[in-house]
Amino acid sequence: MEESEKRFRLLTESIPQLIWETDAEGKALFTSGKWLEYTGVEPGIEGSWQKMIHPDDFEENVKIWQHALVTGEMYRCDVRMRRKDGSYRWHTVIGEPVFGLDNKIIKWVGAFTDIHTEKAFTHELEQQVTARTRELIQINESLRKSEERYHLMVEEVQEYSILYLNSKGIVENWNVGAEKIKGYKADEIIGKYFGIFYTAEDQKHKLPEELLELAREKGKVIHEGWRARKNGSLFWASVVITAVHNKKGDVIGFSKVTHDLTERKKADDKLKMNALELEQKNNELEEMNKELQSFAYISSHDLQEPLRKIQTFASQIIDKESENLSENGKDKFKRMQNAAQRMQTLINDLLAYSRTNSQERVFIKTDLSQIIKEVKEDLTEELEQKSAIIEIGHTSEVDIIPFQFKQLLYNLISNSLKFSNPDIPIIIRITSKIALGQDLAEEKLIAAKKYCHIEVSDNGIGFEAQYNKKIFEVFQRLHGRDRYNGTGIGLAIVKKIVENHNGVITASGIHNEGASFDIYIPVN
Prior knowledge:
Layout: H1 2-14, E1 18-23, E2 28-31, H2 33-39, H3 48-52, H4 55-71, E3 75-82, E4 88-99, E5 105-114, H5 116-125, H6 146-155, E6 160-166, E7 171-173, H7 176-182, H8 186-189, H9 200-204, H10 207-218, E8 220-228, E9 234-245, E10 251-260, H11 262-320, H12 327-358, E11 364-367, H13 368-378, H14 380-385, E12 389-392, E13 397-400, H15 402-418, E14 427-436, E15 450-458, H16 490-500, E16 504-510, E17 514-522
Parallel strand pairs: 12-14
Antiparallel strand pairs: 1-2, 1-5, 3-4, 4-5, 6-7, 6-10, 8-9, 9-10, 11-13, 14-15, 15-17, 16-17
Helix pairs in contact: 1-6, 11-12, 12-16, 13-15, 15-16
């Protein structure tokens, strides 16, 4: 009986619950060894529970405990329990009254069960396993019934399968949680080898034997994998096998705790599937970019030559055969030339768009004022023709790809010139500043990272707020070709260049008042 008592005490010490026992008035009689190891608080001394329980939970806990002492009802409460290192973890504490022959309460027996992980899962993943631990213990004061007491404490845990295996892996006890999770009744499984819970493949590779051997060598082994229920269905199990030793240090058996984590496994698998789908989409996008580059190559080499011939022959016919053509014929030839010119412009724009993806990205620290100066020189005639003024505010040095950034500013300024109000002098303003992401009005930026914020604004015809994002799409045109020339690719090129710089661009406009483009480029 003493050896049996010792075996079940060792089993109690090996499970994660902290076991306690008080007299009928609530004075401490017994705590498991893990109690002092976990809390660092000596059990039974005055104020020990107040030191262990979080201040916000203590009063409610005392109220429930006092109610249980008065009424004899089961004591149950969720509290945050203080660990030795000062941190708190959620526990469920349960206490059951034990009655004597005269039907009066002679003592209380209970346990603290750590439920911190389950609460965290519920908060983060929306659907997780809720740990409800309930222990029904009926014991007598005699040594003969102490084995039954510890047996019942293990047996009534419902959310965990808690088994005791002998040194050969034979199941010797079976709790309610094991029946709930695995589907077997106690009389169907006690006396059988625990390998029955493993899949045929794992049994073939002798995984059960391997886990017992590791527990024997290292004291404890943790494993996750598929396990089989009685009905043949599988569940994802988290298993802890702990070796139980006698006084001599010999392994006399094993405690085995299993938790069903099927729902968490499904969530993890879904995340992995989403990651694979994202990778597939990225691969498809890369293929599309390659096709676009191939199309651009064909456009630049094979399509432009026939266009040039169309333009050349049309010009020659108009120049040399003008007298033989009617006015309607001349008009048709001019339209043909204009259509060929638009086609050539479109091809050049597509080529420029594809090159923003394919060109090697070499960043050089550059003063933006130098880039603006070069763009102004390239657009001298257009600026003079429209009497446009470019106002340059403070500029900064930033790491950029110079030739791409020149194209970016060229496109933005060209847009301002193109979509201007003929009755109002054109004013284009360009400013920049260095600031932390947290100080800039753009949610996509990293708060602690420095950015160069470049703003290009004008007083042109603007656009409606509903087009703030749509304006960057390829071939997107907000105005008819009869009023404004263009292919609708210019701003798409601008967005690609900003992305090549790992930056962000936004647009805002007010109809007939102007447009503004905000560019955020990482400083380093």
